[in-house]
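Thread amino acids onto this structure.
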């Protein structure tokens, strides 16, 4: 007896193989196109983010510079006004030296000193200090008044000096021991 076995053969043709290959290539091409688009979009996002961060940093720097400029202008204006008031202060100090009992002069002197303190103007202490060219201008040197007096010690202040913060508005004019 002979058994019949059936064999099923798939038909394969060159055309069907080409179609399968084309569909696989189309899918790969679509995937490659999508990947390229995603990469391009990610690159654009990174570029825009970088531009945004740079613009934000530039804006912050501009704000900081503007703040510093405003502070500088304000400081320079205050220093200019203070320099114009110093001769008035000198005149009042001289008047007090000649008439130490005048309460009106003392009151004006105290009022100006209070205003100076409020805006940060401080008198440079001189008498008894060692000469410091940053703060003092020696206009005369004299022999030591006492043997205990050290060399380059300020004996007398001829004109007061003033500081505004860490800046010298005017050096003190002083007499120094030899």
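Threaded sequence (178 positions):
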């Amino acid at each position: 007896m002979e058994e019949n076995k059936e064999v099923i053969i798939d038909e394969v043709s060159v055309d069907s193989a080409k179609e399968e290959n084309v569909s696989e290539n189309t899918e790969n091409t679509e995937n490659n196109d999508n990947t390229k688009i995603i990469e391009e979009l990610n690159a654009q996002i990174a570029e825009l983010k970088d531009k945004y961060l740079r613009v934000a940093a530039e804006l912050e720097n501009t704000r900081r510079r503007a703040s510093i400029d405003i502070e500088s202008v304000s400081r320079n204006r205050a220093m200019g006004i203070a320099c114009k008031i110093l001769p008035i202060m000198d005149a009042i100090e001289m008047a007090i030296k000649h008439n130490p009992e005048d309460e009106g002069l003392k009151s004006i002197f105290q009022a100006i000193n209070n205003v100076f303190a409020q805006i940060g103007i401080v008198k440079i202490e001189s008498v008894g200090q060692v000469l410091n060219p940053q703060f003092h201008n020696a206009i005369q040197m004299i022999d030591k008044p006492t043997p205990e007096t050290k060399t380059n010690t300020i004996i007398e202040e001829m004109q007061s000096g003033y500081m505004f913060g860490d800046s010298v508005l005017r050096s003190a004019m002083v007499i120094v021991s030899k």
